[in-house]
Request: fold
Amino acid sequence: MDIEELNNWWADNLGYQGGLSTKQTFEKDDFSLFFVTNPPADRMRVFVPIGPLEKFDLKRMLIANFHETLDVEYSVYNNVVCALYKNWLSELTERSLKEAIDQVINLTKNTLIYDKYSSGKLSFGGGGVKL
Reply:
């Protein structure tokens, strides 16, 4: 996708009514969903703030990033834990964008509601790798 295609997708799927934009915020499932893009760098991010860093077990989140979170990950921005998806903007497809949104929302819900540090789709486990 390019930035114009992303803006059109926002309009068609999330009700966006503004002009061409590189960042936007939407409400979905009672969560704030942030999109930030950098077209010259060909990068994009979708994230949902989860809560203050001090409320969470950072070690557990790092372990979950390896085993449980799939294409999203826990990250920290201004001392706020977020569910984050990042990708090349040019490689973004409608399918991957929908999946990214589902995963950041699922990770946020699972963390806040079920105290489960997982995007909920799949677990890789240790894979038998010895370090």
In short: The beta strands are 23-28, 31-38, 43-52, 73-77, 80-88. The mean pLDDT is 88. The chain is about 35% helix and 30% strand. The chain has one domain: 3-114.
